[in-house]
Design goal:
- The chain has about 130 residues and is α/β, with parallel strands linked by helices.
- The protein has one domain (about 10-125): Response regulator (Rossmann fold), CATH 3.40.50.
- About 35% of the residues lie in helices and about 20% in strands.
- The protein has a five-stranded parallel β-sheet, with helices on both faces. The protein has a two-stranded antiparallel sheet with strand order 4-5.
- β4 and β5 form a beta hairpin.
- The longest helix is centred in the N-terminal third of the chain and has 13 residues, at about 20-30.
- Pfam families: Response_reg (PF00072).
- This is Response regulator receiver domain-containing protein.
Length: about 130
């Protein structure tokens, strides 16, 4: 097992498509992020409590929920309200997505470019909003 630098950030990916989840995980691990993935939202809050992510990548279309509802759950809980969220979607684009009351820190349509994904993640972790 490789020893990761202390600057390494934890990223939680919630994505039901295993291929996309695997690709995002491999890309981020190659950039020295510590990554864990969920393919549904059921255990999200327990998982966040244990893993303490610095960023959450959240798919809008999940088999057991809507990512926008999960974002509301995150933003409404004092223990998770501060965690930056990058939303991803195959169905929606930046032009037609309706986030509702709570906005994510960034949004990417699938399929996305790997460099765009990494740029968004680095930007969001640096405090930017897209």
């Amino acid at each position: 097992m490789d020893i990761l630098p202390p600057s390494c950030k934890n990223v939680l990916v919630i994505e039901d498509n295993h291929a996309i989840l695997d690709v995002i995980t491999l890309i981020l691990q190659s950039e020295s992020y510590k990554v864990t993935g969920l393919n549904k939202s059921a255990d999200m809050m327990n998982h966040i409590e244990q893993f303490k992510p610095d960023l959450i990548i959240l798919d809008i279309m999940l088999p057991d929920g809507d990512g926008r509802d999960l974002l509301k759950t995150l933003r409404s809980d004092a223990s998770t309200a501060y965690i930056p969220v990058l939303m991803i979607s195959a169905r929606y684009t930046a032009d037609n997505v309706q986030h509702g009351e709570f906005k994510p820190n960034g949004f990417l349509s699938k399929p996305f470019d790997i460099d765009d994904l990494l740029d968004r993640i680095e930007g969001i972790l640096a405090g930017k909003t897209y």
